[in-house]
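FORM 12-B: Structure-to-Sequence Request
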């Protein structure tokens, strides 16, 4: 469908340059004060019990709402995936731009700034093609009142803005941090629950970002749909999550292979940006579930639109290097073009940040919040705004299937 207005292509961000990876020690379980522990999972060593095999029917989903893929069935499969990611292979992982390209040549049509892969015709290195984005025709959401603000921890010193951040006062007199992209140096839970994803698509290795969420099986991470499945194309292979990734490729909490992968039906059928969400149930590492090792953020659905959010990820294209956790913070706003139901966040993060969590109600002092969206795409005429999908009923169904895996 050709639009009458000069709207430009959506640019989901994938993958970043990766440094050497080292396997570090596994810490004691992290528990956020006041949060109930997740329910125990009956399946040992990350292997799902046959009686708990997820399906759209068991998750209460309408047919086609969730599409599932079994990534690794046996411990030998898990070992093969983890062994695939040698230090050299991780260092060669490429950042790419996905130029609305699932039906226009696939992921490889958008490789930017890296040698070794030929870019699509009409695309020079580092330059984006201008493509119209089709209207999905999905029903509009009914907004509800509500905002998310940064609230200092009781009894703690008021947090100071990060470098490059701008402090603004609102009628509530509560502090809000606004930045289009700064290195996160405050620490806290978000430095453990956010990590990098390594995967292979079309035979090429890429990197995304992702975050853990609280789930019954203690195994679920959330990322962008295009970091799990190339829209109508193939599923990612060798999918591995490295929580709390640190400079130089350090893996302080180990690495976790995917065992089951889930995307929303509209993403798998038509690469609908409104549903660019993927959820993955992981294997264990050293016999520990990822939530026990690093903690897990809350997740919420059908929340009020707008409000304040913090977005996190590992952008790898200049001016970023992919070696540090970076954040954006500010007010969410609707897609001004009306092309998606997504919300926008002022953000300069580049390729590699795709799938990074957006946290509302974020506590700057402790690093805990509630995931309500993630980094999905940018319009090519507005590099300073990142868009993320709204977590509605379909994404809730996706989550239910993943946490039952």
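FORM 12-B RESPONSE
SEQUENCE OUT:
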């Amino acid at each position: 469908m050709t639009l009458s207005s000069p709207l430009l292509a959506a640019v989901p961000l994938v993958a970043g340059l990766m440094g050497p990876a080292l396997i570090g020690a596994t810490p004691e379980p992290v528990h956020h004060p006041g949060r109930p522990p997740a329910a125990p999972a009956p399946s040992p060593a990350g292997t799902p019990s046959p009686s708990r095999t997820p399906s759209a029917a068991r998750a209460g989903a309408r047919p086609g709402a969730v599409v599932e893929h079994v990534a690794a069935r046996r411990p030998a499969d898990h070992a093969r995936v983890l062994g695939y990611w040698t230090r050299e292979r991780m260092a060669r992982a490429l950042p790419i731009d996905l130029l609305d390209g699932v039906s226009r040549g696939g992921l490889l049509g958008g490789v930017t700034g890296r040698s070794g892969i030929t870019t699509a015709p009409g695309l020079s290195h580092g330059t984006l093609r201008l493509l119209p984005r089709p209207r999905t025709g999905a029903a509009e959401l009914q907004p509800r009142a509500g905002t998310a603000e940064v609230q200092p921890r009781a009894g703690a010193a008021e947090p100071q803005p990060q470098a490059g951040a701008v402090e603004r006062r609102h009628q509530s007199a509560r502090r809000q941090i606004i930045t289009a992209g700064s290195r996160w140096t405050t620490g806290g839970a978000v430095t453990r629950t956010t990590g990098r994803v390594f995967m292979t698509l079309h035979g090429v290795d890429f990197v995304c970002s992702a975050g853990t969420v609280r789930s019954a099986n203690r195994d679920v991470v959330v990322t962008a749909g295009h970091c799990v499945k190339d829209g109508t194309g193939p599923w990612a292979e060798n999918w591995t999550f490295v929580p709390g990734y640190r400079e130089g490729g350090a893996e302080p909490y180990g690495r976790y292979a995917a065992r089951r992968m889930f995307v929303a039906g509209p993403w798998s059928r038509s690469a609908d940006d409104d549903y660019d969400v993927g959820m993955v149930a992981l294997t264990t590492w050293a016999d520990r579930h990822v939530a026990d090792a690093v903690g897990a953020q809350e997740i919420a659905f059908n929340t009020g639109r707008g409000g304040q959010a913090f977005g996190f990820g590992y952008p790898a294209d200049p001016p970023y290097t992919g070696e540090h956790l970076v954040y954006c913070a500010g007010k969410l706003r609707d897609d001004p073009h009306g092309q998606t139901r997504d919300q926008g966040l002022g953000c300069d993060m580049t390729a590699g940040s795709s799938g990074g969590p957006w946290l509302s109600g974020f506590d700057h002092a402790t690093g805990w919040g509630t995931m309500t969206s993630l980094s999905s795409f940018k319009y090519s005429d507005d590099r300073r705004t990142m868009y993320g999908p709204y977590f509605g009923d379909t994404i809730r169904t996706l989550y239910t299937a993943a946490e039952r895996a």
